[in-house]
Amino acid sequence: MCARSHTLQLRFGKVLAHNIATTSAQSALKPDRTLFIAVIPMDIDWQDVESHLLLAATKELRHFGDAHRTEEFYGFAIDCNSEYGSLLLCLNTQKHLHDCAVKYSVEPPNQDVFGQMLRKIDEKFGKDVFAELSNQPPRTREEYEQSLRWSLGDWLYQGFNSEEFDSAWKNFEDTICDALLEEEIPDGEGIDEDPLFKSPLQNQFLRSVCRVALQLESISAFDVLNRTDDFLVYVADHDEPDEDSWARLKSARREYGR
After folding, report:
1. What is 178-246 written as a DSSP string?
2. 32 and 57: one domain?
């Protein structure tokens, strides 16, 4: 299991913190004593990671395609969380996109929560943001379709990974997660300075996933699906702007010659 889930840590620091007051061998230490141990990032064979992910994803697509022959898909995505080395395979249909857009245009999501938040801002800062936004015309179905097209959390099949796929990926995920935990970040860099910061290891993980997505194209792995003429593949990291995701994939496509 990834140590990140169970270890007190300085995620973007240079050291790994371990509480050493929980074992009998360390009982002589004070209960609140913390030992800071310098660590060295482990090496990862990214070609091995990519080859295994390619094989597992190809098999998963084949099984999914057999079970969903009547549906037509406009996009395949790999939804990543680069802080943990985790990923979800995703697909969406034009029909589901249209249905979501219609629903949201009639009944916008989280409208009550958003309204309460704006009212609190108005009360605290003496502004009238809520009234200003309330007077704006509602978003149209077409606008929602555009904004939801690559919003993976709204896709019909977000994370169609089977247990077999997750089991095959688990060891790689744990290895990547532990390596991220051990990674040293130079002073003056990190999430505290930039909320969108990604470490070199995070970037390497995402670029490897991009290469796998492009290899799936090159070996015609998507031929098992009914696809629209404008079918695209996409790779996104958790909570990053869409333009960053597309720019990374475009760069990987140039590198891969696709």
Report:
1. HHHHH----TT-STTT-TT---HHHHHHHHHHHHHHHHHHHTTGGGGSEEEEEEEEEEEETT--HHHHH
2. no
